[in-house]
Amino acid sequence: MMQRREFIKRSLAGLTGAGSLLATSSQFNLVNAATNTNSFTDYKALVCVFLLGGNDSLNMLIPTDNPGYQAYAATRQNLAVPLEQIINLQSAAYGSAFGLHPSLAPMADLFNSGAASFVANVGTLIEPVDKTRILNGRALLPPQLFSHSDQQNHWQSGIPQDPALTGWAGRMADLLGDSQAALSMNLSLAGSNLWQTGNQVLPFALGPQGADAIVGLNPEHDWLNQNAGFLDRIHTGADTLFAREYRQIVDRTRRTGELVNTSLMLAPELQTLFPATSLAQQLQTVAKMIAVQQHLNQPRQVFFVAMGGWDTHDNQLIDQPLLLAELAGGLQAFYQATEELGLAQQVTTFTASDFGRTLTSNGDGTDHGWGGHQIVVGGAVNGGDIVGTMPALTLDSNDDMGDGRIIPTLAVDQYAATLARWYGLSESQLHEILPNLQNFASADLGFMA
């Protein structure tokens, strides 16, 4: 018989993926045990792609009519994309007068085929505001408007006036999730995050190959015996409150990791080719988790992936085209993978970012702004459209609160509510997870079927 210490060591080290421990029939019984009845009769997934640093979306979606482009070029100066390089969008509405940055060619294909839309000028708000009220000091504004950490928290929490303790996806999972489920509804490829944190639900973190091992128990590490000995004592004799809780956490982590990795071994080999980028590799793992959602008994899944580098105060003309190309390539490959799986109608991917950036150039880049444009992709998206109102791109307009910072005309709350309604929340549940939603005229922006 294997000694307890050796069992713990091998079990926890085996969380790296397709090791021999996971290939046994007892491990596949975990998958069978996870499959049981659930109140949902369909499958849906939301995938948030968070662009850390603040995407300059004013250089992503660009006016192409003569007056609009001339205003854009005059304001943006050295950052303006040449008109002849802009990729035209085919749309009967806004799209006929707007185009995309040349690095977003795959996004143009998704938009023109009806699989993607843009949501214009979204930002963190507590209530609708305008320039006059802001300048007169009569507007209730989110605190720390141009701070990275605060604005990321505001986007993810949906309650900017309160301390950030939970996110709207976490509160959504509190309402819809199964407390007895073996695996959290919220799955992260970018570590812990506020957006997926609820009062009862926490995100389960994944690595590129699935559930990660507990690094301190890797057999390659010199301190393995000491760690295994500690866990051995925790599992055998200690009965303190700390010991009991720690024992439960370690055992649950091991069981859940085995469940995830064993299920991933059942995923079909996708023919879709994913680019060799960080974002695309995260999305490839998401596609695999979606492919095995039935084995995991997860009729609802929420994924968080992230991509850094968007804080383009300098070197923007070199850095942003590379960032946009990585974003577009990853989104296109992921959508094609959902089509291959026959689940494109059931999966919706959307972008979020700290904030937009300033209209004006600082000479080599842009500074922290406020409102910005977002992308939504999926078979259930009312594609080929630009939703909302595009801002004027001239300085000191009614859309410019000062220093080229655009005032949002759509709230994160409205954006989130449109996605959450499609996901399955009722009207009352929408207001429960987004308490500021009542301050805005529309709780459905209409970009989801």
UniProtKB/TrEMBL annotation:
Classification via InterPro entries: DUF1501
Lineage top rank: taxon: Bacteria
Any Pfam family hit: DUF1501
Protein name as catalogued: Tat pathway signal protein
